[in-house]
Amino acid sequence: RRRAGSRGGSSGKRSPPGPFAWPLVGNALQLGRLPHLAFGRLERRYGAVFQLRLGRRRAVVLNGEAVIRRALVGSGARFAGRPDFPSFELVSGGRSVAFGSCSPRWRARRRLAHAALRARSTAAEVERHVAAEAGDLVRLFLRRSRGGAYFEPSPLLVVANANVLCALCFGRRYGHADGEFAALLGRNDRFGQTVGAGSVVDVLPWLLRFPNPVRRVFRDFQALNRELHGFVRAKVAQHRQTFDPRALRDVSDVMIAAVEHSERPPEGLGPEDVEGAMTDIFGAGQDTTSTALSWVLLLLLKHPRLQRDLQAELDRVVGRSRLPMAEDRPHLPLLEAFIYETLRYTSFVPITIPHATTDDVELEGFHIPKGTVVFINQWSVNHDCGKWPDPQRFDPARFLDAQQRLDRDRAGSVMIFSAGQRRCIGDQLSKLQLFLFTAILLHQCSFHANPAEDLTMDCIHGLALKPRPFTVTVRQRQPMLIQS
Ligand code: HEM
Predict the structure, then answer these.
(1) What is the mean pLDDT of residues 113-130?
(2) Rounded mean pLDDT of 288-307?
(3) HEC per residue, the chain
(4) Which atom of ligand 1 is nearest to the CA of 422?
(5) What distance in Å separates the CA atoms of residue 159 and residue 132, rounded to the nearest whole number?
(6) Is the CB of residue 361 less than 8 Å from the CB of residue 78?
């Protein structure tokens, strides 16, 4: 039954409409494993702005590009807070950029992280590291495909991508056979399950008082955050010991220099903020981009003709005597369109990290009090049929204009990195990484699906949606430029 926007108590201000909320749990158990789809159904019923109750907390869900941009870009910092959830405190030693609430210190930490990342992720540097990792991947892929065998590519993509981040952040990489590194990265899935919109532990904290599956996931979350932060702290400590202000080696050194060796350090920041921001960059950066790469591979398997078209474009523009480079990007519109369509179609971060209002605010005529949890439904932007004809169809050509050039406006209106003051700081880096990995892998290899498997778009849920495990066999393209 529809409940219209109600007048809130004595204030007479209009609250957003929303479904009936059950005592104790509110709507927390109604969102299911894929809350963006539940939000889509509720949007059709209640409109672009509606409210829920999660336990005792009030939450508002924002849908559609216009409303989301008005809130995140047009309302200053009022939608840029984070809820004071117990799990958020555990991330990056409590000094997280991504999970920290909006304060002058958080702002300084974000600026520090953004500037250090930009300084050390130039096209040349990213290209060097991706080329090395992609070379290793090609060799591994071909080895595992001997005799036409099928293997699971996603775990290898995770390590390759984490190594790019490790090289940029700490100046080193790990072998694919390094069990400890693989184990550290393998725990990523559980991170996303705790902080994603469908997670109930933060809104039903009494679930932590007795043994149950939610408590187990939460305790795992505690352990994995401690472990990741410990890994990064050890790396930063080594950097401090060998620090030379005249030769900054990587993102760690740039941050140490700015905070610990500067005459005018950013206000309020100390060594723990360097460790917190580094943990965030490493944590956020290695999980997301590798997920995107897994989707890229899955979609190449589902669309073999498109795979051949992409290879033909690469052969025409790059030729067969060298590997693709960052500067080829503007000349490969089909490849760019394919990547944007992958981001749009999968919308694999369908809802951002939860936001919170930092003040009372009016939006679309509704009153939203300070401290309200706000969910930003990016999926709704990317699957809006008013904006994308037939949004459930995978079609890279929607990003090409009549001259087969990339339509930059359309590409820019895919929403996967959020917007406004909380927009992802790794957007440029991850798009460049995605481009280079995809270009090099497709230039050197072709990818073939396992006929015994059904290639489904079903996913593992969490903050990021990941493809279910799938296998592939890889064949080399001639002439091979990567030595085996
Ligand atoms: C395809 C890859 C990626 C996607 C789809 C992605 C997406 C996102 C999203 C949706 C958010 C939340 C924004 C919000 O709450 O409104 C976010 C935040 C963030 N991302 Fe990314 N990200 C990616 C790669 C990266 C990389 C490579 C890095 C760093 C190297 C990074 C660092 C961060 C940080 C530090 C934040 C927190 C920003 C804040 O709260 O102020 N991300 N990202």
Answers:
(1) 96
(2) 97
(3) CCCCCCEEHHHCEECCCCCCCECCCECHHHCCCCHHHHHHHHHHHHCCEEEEEECCEEEEEEECHHHHHHHHCCCCCCCCECCCCHHHHCHHHHCCCCCCCCCHHHHHHHHHHHHHHHHHCCHHHHHHHHHHHHHHHHHHHHHHCHHHCCECCHHHHHHHHHHHHHHHHHCCCCCCCCHHHHHHHHCHHHHHHHHCCCCCCCCCHHHHHCCCHHHHHHHHHHHHHHHHHHHHHHHHHHHHHCCCCCCCCCHHHHHHHHHHCCCCCCCCCCHHHHHHHHHHHHHHHHHHHHHHHHHHHHHHHHCHHHHHHHHHHHHHHCCCCCCCCHHHHHHCHHHHHHHHHHHHHHCCCCECCCEECCCCEEECCEEECCCCEEEEEHHHHHCCCCCCCCCCCCCHHHHECCCCCECHHHHHCCCCCCCHHHCCCCHHHHHHHHHHHHHHHHHHEEEEECCCCCCCCCEECCCCCEECCCCEEEEECCCCCCCC
(4) 41
(5) 13
(6) yes
CB of 62 sitting under 6 A from ligand 1:
no
pLDDT of residue 461: 80
Q: For the segment 335-365, what is each residue's pLDDT rounded down to a tens digit?
A: 999 999 999 999 999 999 999 999 999 999 9
Ligand 1 centroid–CA 80 distance in Å is 14
* Ligand 1 atom showing the smallest separation from residue 348 Cα: 5
Confidence category of residue 197, pLDDT binned at 50, 70, 90: low
364's torsion region: left (phi>0), alpha (psi -120 to 50) or beta?
Answer: left
Interface confidence: ipTM more than 0.95: yes
> Can you give the pTM of this predicted structure?
0.94
Percent of the chain with pLDDT strictly greater than 90: 73
pLDDT of residue 171 exceeding 60, the answer is: yes
Tell me the two tokens of residue 35.
């809350």
Instruction: Give the pLDDT of residue 193.
Output: 67
- 280 C-alpha to center of ligand 1: Å? 9
CA 430 to ligand 1 centroid distance, Å: 9
Closest C-alpha to 378, from 99, 36, 91, 73: 36
Band of pLDDT at residue 210, cut at 50, 70 and 90: confident
